[in-house]
Amino acid sequence: MSTTGSTATPDTRAVRAFLExxxxxxxxxxxxxxAERIAxxxxxxxxxxxxxxxxxxxxxxxxxxxxxPIGRLDLRACALAREALAHxxxxxxxxxxLQALGAAPILLAGDDAQRTRWADPLVRGAAMGAFAMTExxxxxxxxxxxxxxxxxxxxxxxxxxxxxxxNAGLADIYTVYAVTDANAGRxxxxxxxxxxxxxxxxxLGPQVMSAPHPLGELAFEDCRVPVSHRLGEEGAxxxxxxxxxxxxxxxxxxxxxxxxxxxxxEAAAHATSRAQFGQPLAGFQLVQEKLARMAxxxxxxRLLVYRAxxxxxxxxxxxxxxxxxxKAFATEAAQRIVDxxxxxxxGRGVLADHPVDRLYRAVRALRIYEGTTEIQHLIIARQVVxxxxxxxAAASGGEPATSSSHAAAQAAGPGGGA
Length: 418
Prior knowledge:
This protein has helices at 21-38, 47-63, 68-71, 75-88, 90-109, 112-124, 237-273, 285-313, 320-345, 355-363, 373-396, 404-411, and strands spanning 129-132, 148-152, 155-166, 173-179, 189-195, 201-206, 215-226, 230-231, 275-276, 279-280. It has 12 helices and 10 strands. Strands 1-4-5-8 form a 4-stranded mixed sheet. The protein is globular, with a radius of gyration of 22 Å. It is an alpha+beta fold. Helix 4 packs antiparallel against helix 5.
């Protein structure tokens, strides 16, 4: 029940300075695909229905080549894809996101054989991916991880439990983080590729969200994987996981922008067509103020997103702060924009079959997964403090101090499940 058609178009005009012509063309093409193939899909009514539809969406994305930017780590193209998909269907966005998150550690640290064996099928849509890091006692504090990987000859034996894992019970390939040296803290974590049919890997069951999104718990019970399934060096898993999250964090922000753009379109269409007290809602200044703030925050968020993606595509070694700013601002702004849309639509905005109500349920998780807003603020503050200390040290001729907030921020992990 919607008052406007879904075109799923990322508006490239405001962010044109950060895009190449191929990105503008890509945005047009994926917008058309989303309008034709994704937007008409019915909203899943249950977790089981969402799992079935997620597979259908993966087939559509894979057969059309829409996952291809993941393989070449073209962050701007990935961001445009997620913005378009999230505008049309939050579930479709999640499918794309998990292919990227599952493939990224393999693309970043895998050798040629590992990329061919596991990353290529993910990018083709021939296999579904998942990223298994979060545990019952290890969310933002990744170093508290308890899942272990014990070396046994030419293999590792994994034991432990993962929770809040997207695509749990659905994925074909899991990138799994486990402790290989309990005395080394974060430097004792390693990353492994674990195919879903590996003996000892068990799907414990779904964790049902208010918005359709395959999520669940996994158990590793003497799960044996060859040494050749380890990505990178032993003990390099924490750095690899953080690198993957840093890389893809701007695309989470892009998804938030897609949801916010859809909410703004729905609100504006309703405000211009719905009359009360003898005039359209859009004629009331309080409604105009909401629309103006929504549009301004959306544009500001998109500028942060594509600035971060442009930096990475341009060769920046890390975009930790830029990505943190984009994710924190865009996801919080999207929450406000969707909430304002609900308010403008009034009673219609809280009907379960309305797109804005579905967006209200879907957008909330973006402020948590792949790094909570609070963790992003710690990352940003750490840099602000570091630069302030450096300026003070330069002025006094001494060495920069290490503040307690700086140390706390360094200890923080990604926050939340993915």
